[in-house]
Amino acid sequence: MAEIQALQQLEQKLNQVILGKPQAVRLALCCLLSEGHLLIEDLPGLGKTTLAHALALSLGVHYKRVQFTNDMLPADLLGQSVFLRDTQEFQFRSGPIFSQILLADEINRASPRTQSALLEAMEEKQVSVDGLSYALPKPFFVIATQNPLFHAGTNALPESQLDRFLMRLALGFPDLQTEKLILQQDHGQSRLEGLLPCINEQQLLLLQQQVVQIKVSDALLDYLLALVTQSRQQQDCLPLSPRAAKALLRATKAFALLSGRHYATAEDVQQVFPAVAEHRLNPGSSRDNKSLSLQLLRKVPCPL
Amino acid sequence: MLNPAFIPTALLVQLMLLALLQEGLSWWSSLVLMGILLFKYISFKVQQKVRIMTINALAVMLCLLLLSQLWQQDMQDSMLQLLFFSAALRLFSIHSELQHAKKLVWVQYFLITTGFMLNQSLWFASVVFLLFFCNLYLHYLLFAPVQQNKFRWTDIRLLLWVMPFCVALFVLFPRLPPLWQTERQHQAQTGLADELSLGGLERLVQNDSLAFRVEFKDEKPAQHELYWRAKVFEAFNGQDWLPDLQRTPQQPVATPGRYQYQLVVEPHFQRSLFSLGQVNQLQGQVQTVAAGLIESRQQISRRFSYSLTSNGAAVAQQNTEEAKRNLLLRHSNPQASELALQLKQQHRTASAYARALYQYFEREQFSYSLRPPVLNQQSEVDQFLFQHKVGFCGHYASAAAYLFRAAGIPARVVAGYQGGVWQTQGDYLQVLQKDAHAWVEYLDDGYWRRFDATVIVAPLRLTQGLSDALSLSERQFLDQFFQRGFLGNWLQQLEWLDYYWSVWVLSFDQTEQRFIWLYFKTMPWLWISTGITTSLLLVLMIYLWLQRSSQSQNVLLRQRMLKVLRPYGEKADYQSMESYLHQLIQLYPLQATKLNELLSAYQRFEFAEQQEQLQQCRKLLHQLAKHHSAAG
Question: Per-residue pLDDT tens for B99-121?
């Protein structure tokens, strides 16, 4: 029970940092609880990096941040073998990816080659360099941010790689009151300062185990499948894969846990659906990055 | 919105009704109805709406026409036609009005059942059932979705479920006697005539149709004992024998009789019924009248069943009046009177006289024929006895009764049926119109003894029925074809079915019901086993019901929620119950507590599968429903 309380406290603290975006905060937490990687996509200056930082900081795990650029090489990320004169042998110098949370800022600025190196690590949870595999620490999250694709100097992530991210979130503009509050509270220091971790590694692993045990009724599974099936019958979007269905189920369960329940509801599915499905239905991002998934939700009757 | 299949189906039903009720409709009304249906069909095809004024004018015209015909027809047929006209005109006026269509369906149910007033045979009943199901389908169309024109399996299953209840209702629902009754004037009278002239039974004898059927309970009488008494003619006017008009009812002698039997009589539009000899006990809507006869309380215009007990013995003399009455004679036939006196001098007692008469008929070589020579109006008996010596039962009975009376022995002519054919399948006796017969009863020692001269003249007539007594060659061919062939067997099976349809279904009335009840009471084991079976079935049904409802309890609850909450606000199809309830909470802050409780109970029931929350959900829904109806 202690971990649930800690979780709620964590959410509260995050909301104090990211003002006016409780839904995005909850979804981001939900993504982490269901052991998925998170992609935050929005215009510059809307708080993507702040959210990523806040998450990493408050989780109390080891994290590193990498700013992706177009001349970045995979070795810059993964690490490389260095020849040591003293011992006359190669030694592996691990790169920034060897952390529990990796903040990959502006991931779509990197070349496809670097991107795929990262994405391989995300899926396999290990890194291969010079024929040797190095396991990544546990838990391992990637929180990536990216600018919308129409911005100059970006390389779009291919569909297969987008699929590795459990969720794609957009923060959007804050409403007027929130923005005013942000301006009022701007005292020249970052909101992130003084943010202390309120959950430890142990508790996080425990919470992740609890997510798996959340009860999902048969009828709810049917509804979830109906959503997935509907995407496969539609012409204007890509079909959702079984991996997507699994991701949807996991996210639903995590969302239920975050709401303090031990069972998932139809509303949970509907809440996480746009975040989980949109980037799979519509890989090319747009400003309005929920439209296809919302259309799909409206097409499937929900009796529950 | 009316199902597009409704009007063609209704047209078909009415067309079938027209065929069914043909007997009760006059020729012109059949034509008019035909015309209306045809016209409706055409206007339906071309999608032309008929003006209501036209229909009203037509209705008024038809009413007037019916009124003008009222004195010619009997009441019942007129009412039937009126009802049919209104149904047809209603169909004529329906375009897409659901309300009118509903009324039409009910009137058609009523019309279909009126068919039973015209005919009650099994075949007719099966047509009625067919029509009933057609109308049921029509009824179904009223509620079926527009695209759904066929019965679905679930509908058929529902019908099957209902069947046992129908049977139970039929057996257990109190049978009421008819509330009112209309006599039908039937031109084509069948059965025995009200008077007997010398050639009077001829018309009947040619007739092959069924008169009545009998089932004996234990002992069956011999073929030559089967004299079914129906009418007694006591008055002789010189030519014809007429029934005596003084009816002094006679109570049956309440002693156990030898034969117990049940009769099912075909409608013959008279009141007279049939019995064997002296009647001891009777059951059903029958009463005794003079001369040991029985009759129904009403004219028999539909199949009628009753049970009797009799010992087949001679009927006892009622009083001295009766003897006197049966001595009256107008001596219109001098030769016969003379013969009677001669014989009487030689044979003093009545029985001896009767034997002498038998001998006389035998000695004088009388013969049997259904086509005897035509007799003059005067002294018919003389002509028959001394000139032609050819005739059938009517001649012999009439002549013998004359001879008895002329000799001073009270005698009367009895008309009825003799014999019958045993049906092997059902073990019942079938008596046809051609078995009609006439014989004589003379008074001897306080009893009316039977005298049947036909026995002497045509012995086969008695033991094997009429067909054998007649020209054999033609009859045999037909009999072989009908009785031994495949068709014959099949026909016999059908007749057998029809018989039990009459016995078990048509004649099922209060007495039968009481009988079933009494039968039940005397047999405790039957009681107990029926009780156990019924309760087992009930338990099974409840179990199945529970089983079914537990599977779909969630669905049922969701449906109930939607129904109860709809007045508060509509739920979008894609909306989850949670967001729907939140939306309602916003709209009805006063109900927020209840709605919140409902939401949490529902979520627990639906998603956490906590069955105990169902009660809570139902309770809250009940309160919400009540609240809304109170507020609304």
Answer: 888 899 999 999 999 888 887 77
DSSP assignments along B504-528, one per residue? IIIT--HHHHHHHHHHHHH-HHHHH
Looking at residue B632, its pLDDT comes to 47
Residue B255 within any structural domain of the chain:
yes
Count of domains for chain B: 4
The answer to whether B489 touches B392, Cβ cutoff 8 Å, is no
pTM of the model: 0.48
ipTM above 0.95?
A: no
Give a yes or no: residue B502 inside a domain.
no
Contacts of A215 in chain B (CB under 8 A): 607-609
Q: Under the phi-then-psi rule, with left for phi > 0, alpha for psi from -120 to 50, and beta for the rest, what region is B284?
A: left
- My answer on whether B435 and B563 are in the same domain is no
Range(s) of the domain holding residue B524: 519-550
Query: Can you list the residues of chain A whose pLDDT is less than 50?
Result: none
- For A221, the closest chain B residue by CA position comes to B607
Answer yes or no: do B527 and B424 share one domain.
Answer: no
Tens of pLDDT, residues B245-273: 666 666 666 666 778 888 888 877 778 88
Q: What is residue B198's predicted lDDT score, i.e. its pLDDT? A: 62
Please give the structure tokens belonging to residue A290.
Answer: 């929920």
Nearest Cα of chain B lies from the Cα of A264 at a distance, in angstroms, of 6
Instruction: Write down the domain spans for chain A.
Output: 2-211, 213-304
Grade residue B88 by pLDDT with cuts at 50, 70 and 90.
very high
Q: How many angstroms separate the CA atoms of B400 and B381, rounded?
A: 9
Q: Is residue B182 part of a domain?
A: no
Please count the helices (runs of H) and the strands (runs of E) in chain A: 12, 9
| Shared domain check, B538 and B480 | no
Chain B residue with CA closest to A227: the answer is B574
Each residue's pLDDT tens digit, B29-46: 899 999 999 988 998 888
The nearest CA of chain A is from the CA of B116 a distance in Å of 51
Portion of chain A with pLDDT greater than 90, in percent: 25
A213-304: what fold? Helicase, Ruva Protein; domain 3 (1.10.8)
Q: What pLDDT is attached to residue B187?
A: 43
Superfamily of domain A2-211: P-loop containing nucleotide triphosphate hydrolases (3.40.50.300)
Q: Tell me the residue ranges of DSSP E strands in B234-369.
A: 235-236, 241-242, 259-265, 275-276, 279-283, 286-288, 294-296, 304-310, 315-316, 367-368
Residues of B in contact with A293 (CB under 8 A): none
